[in-house]
């Protein structure tokens, strides 16, 4: 899902893990590499199938442990509505993400808008609910698929990150 080169992502992941005093093992790195190489969210069992070509005799618990570690370190996200995982586009800082998921092509765009997370936390607090992870998944149609439906085929479908505070007004 990320637009950064895989080697750059892996190097950043290794640096972050080293700074945090945790190990990015070869199996964890293999799972992260596969997630970042995919242009769509990947389920744990799809990862297991892909791991068969990379690691000798991978087992479901191994993949799930790797995913748990990567989630804990903020290197990947789990899309609950899809029961699938994507690489984080900015793992170098904690954040609450929103995901725009195309129903047609499966493209996922990670959006980082702190005001959305704060609004959800405030709404929860108002009714006595303590939000742990204010994650939002929005299903819809990406620009490329919308253009295809309109008869245009001149828009590239590339997974991306959007930070509203960095957009021009």
TrEMBL record:
Zn(2+) binds at residues 102, 105, 142, 145. GO terms for cellular component: cytosol. The keyword Cytoplasm does not apply. Keywords: DNA-binding, Metal-binding, Repressor, Transcription, Transcription regulation, Zinc. The keyword Zinc applies. It holds the Pfam family FUR. Its cofactor is Zn(2+). InterPro entries: FUR, Fur_C, WH-like_DNA-bd_sf, WH_DNA-bd_sf. One of its GO terms (molecular function) is transcription cis-regulatory region binding. Binds 1 zinc ion per subunit. One of its GO terms (biological process) is negative regulation of DNA-templated transcription. PANTHER family: ZINC UPTAKE REGULATION PROTEIN (PTHR33202:SF6). Belongs to the Fur family. This is Fe2+/Zn2+ uptake regulation protein. It comes from Thioflavicoccus mobilis 8321.
């Amino acid at each position: 899902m990320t637009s950064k080169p895989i080697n750059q992502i892996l190097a950043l992941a290794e640096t972050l893990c080293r700074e945090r005093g945790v190990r990015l093992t070869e199996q964890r790195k293999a799972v992260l590499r596969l997630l970042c190489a995919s242009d769509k969210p990947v389920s744990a069992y799809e990862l297991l199938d892909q791991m068969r070509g990379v690691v000798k005799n991978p087992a479901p618990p191994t993949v799930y442990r790797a995913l748990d570690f990567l989630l804990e370190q903020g290197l990947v996200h789990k899309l609950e509505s899809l029961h699938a995982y994507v690489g984080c586009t900015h793992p170098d800082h904690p954040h609450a993400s929103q995901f725009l998921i195309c129903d047609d092509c499966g493209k996922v765009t990670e959006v980082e808008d702190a005001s959305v997370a704060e609004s959800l936390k405030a709404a929860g607090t108002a009714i006595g609910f303590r939000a742990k992870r204010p994650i939002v998944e929005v299903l819809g149609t990406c620009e490329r698929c919308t253009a295809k439906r309109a008869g245009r085929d001149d828009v590239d479908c590339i997974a991306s990150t959007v930070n509203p505070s960095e957009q021009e007004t």
